[in-house]
């Protein structure tokens, strides 16, 4: 099988973690009989510096032609004051829209070796394993009218039936492969768009009788995630609410540097670590490559439908952490702190090991 990947390393630590991810992808692809062709492109500040735009048509076309896109990270203080459409973030939003990546899957899973790295108590956190499923191409991020004049600024939160139905179906499908619970999060006590969301999700739920659907207001959900995160399985929510809740969910795991994500559409898919570009440690070989590597596991599962390869990568990461190796950001007493490249090498070695154990 031939497979086209467009890596978009981006800014800050993006290039370092992308390199790690591509190495793991190349190794696992080889084991799985997949021939990879790479078409790397600039994005974000890196693209702005060279071409005066955060996303060139060439880069966009490379993504449209690819079977999957891997994104490192975009943004940095250097580009914060640029006009809206020139900011690195604008490239990301355009990419999501143009590729039709409406379903953003952000798992919040606690690694047993990092239970005490969280700001939450161990007994609150232990066993936490849920997914924030965020609608990614609609809602207030893209709604019209939008704008500002000297007197006011305005945005519009709008969802069509079609947009809600397709993301709701993804939620029920994912829950069907997990603990069979969907929690739809909205603000239906105030917003009409949320009342419409809630009714539309309830109608789709009829097609999935084996899944339990409940609803929660977003303010309560934010509170419940820190109070009792174990209660959640799949959180289904809109673009803005998902942006906020996924940051909370990421933080409580105590390991933002370890969380992967996938953005899926009808024709395209993009994989990226949840963390940002961390300009303060960029270029120092200190970045944690785990989130990027686990994003490759999501790629194997979602794009190749190869759950076994995904599990091998996850196990390899787990084994490396169990052995006490980690990057500086997640170091605890007794940790063996190593660099990005060393950590990647360790995980690759473990992939090889786990892979050959499974063949036996
Ligand atoms: C994210 C980010 C983006 C978002 C920004 C960088 C545009 O915060 O992926 O969560 O708001 O979606
Ligand atoms: Mn965000």
Percent range of helical residues:
40-55%
Question: Remind me, CATH topology of the largest domain?
Answer: Isopropylmalate Dehydrogenase
Number of helices, counting only DSSP H or I runs of 4 residues or more: 12
* Through-space gap between termini: 25 Å
Percent strand equals 15-25%
**Cα-atom radius of gyration:** 20 Å
Largest sheet: 10 strands, mixed
Domains, number: 2
What ligand species are in this complex? 3-isopropylmalic acid, manganese (II) ion
Briefly note the structural class of the backbone.
alpha/beta
* Anisotropy-based shape: globular
Describe the overall structure.
42% of the residues lie in helices and 19% in strands. It contains 12 helices and 14 strands. The strands form 3 sheets. The protein has a 10-stranded mixed sheet, sandwiched between helices. It has a two-stranded antiparallel ribbon with strand order 6-7. A hairpin with a 4-residue loop joins strand 6 (147-148) and strand 7 (153-154). Helix 1 (14-31) crosses helix 10 (290-302), helix 1 packs parallel to helix 12 (340-359) and helix 11 packs across helix 12. Manganese (II) ion (MN) is lined by residues 243, 247.
């Amino acid at each position: 099988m031939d497979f086209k990947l467009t890596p978009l390393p981006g800014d800050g630590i993006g290039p370092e973690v992308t390199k790690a991810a591509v190495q793991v992808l190349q190794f696992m692809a080889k084991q799985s009989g997949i021939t990879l062709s790479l078409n790397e492109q600039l994005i974000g500040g890196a693209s702005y510096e060279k071409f005066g735009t955060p996303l060139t048509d060439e880069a966009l076309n490379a993504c449209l032609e690819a079977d999957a896109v891997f994104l490192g990270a975009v943004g940095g203080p250097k580009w914060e004051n640029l006009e809206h459409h020139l900011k690195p973030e604008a490239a990301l939003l355009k990419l999501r829209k143009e590729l039709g990546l409406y379903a953003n899957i952000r798992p919040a899973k606690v690694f047993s070796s990092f239970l005490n790295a969280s700001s939450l108590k161990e007994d609150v956190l232990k066993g936490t394993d849920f997914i924030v499923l965020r609608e990614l191409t609609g809602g207030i991020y893209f709604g019209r009218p939008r704008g500002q004049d000297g007197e006011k600024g305005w945005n519009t939160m709008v969802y069509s039936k079609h947009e809600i139905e397709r993301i709701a179906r993804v939620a029920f499908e994912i829950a069907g492969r997990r603990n069979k619970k969907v929690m739809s999060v909205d603000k239906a006590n105030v917003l009409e768009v949320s009342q419409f969301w809630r009714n539309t999700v309830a109608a789709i739920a009829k097609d999935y009788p084996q899944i339990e659907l409940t609803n929660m207001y977003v303010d309560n959900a934010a509170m419940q995630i820190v109070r009792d995160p174990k209660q959640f399985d799949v959180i289904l929510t809109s673009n803005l609410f998902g942006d906020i809740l996924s940051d909370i969910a990421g933080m409580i795991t105590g390991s933002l540097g370890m969380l992967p994500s996938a953005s899926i559409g009808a024709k395209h898919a993009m994989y990226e670590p949840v963390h940002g570009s961390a300009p303060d440690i960029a270029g120092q070989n200190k970045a944690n490559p785990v989130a990027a590597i686990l994003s490759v596991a999501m790629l194997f599962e979602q794009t190749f439908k190869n759950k076994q390869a995904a599990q091998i990568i996850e196990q390899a990461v787990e084994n490396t952490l169990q052995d006490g190796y980690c990057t500086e950001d997640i170091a605890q007493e007794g940790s063996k702190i190593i660099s990005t490249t060393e950590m990647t090498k360790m995980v690759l070695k473990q992939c090889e090991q786990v892979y050959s154990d499974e063949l036996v």
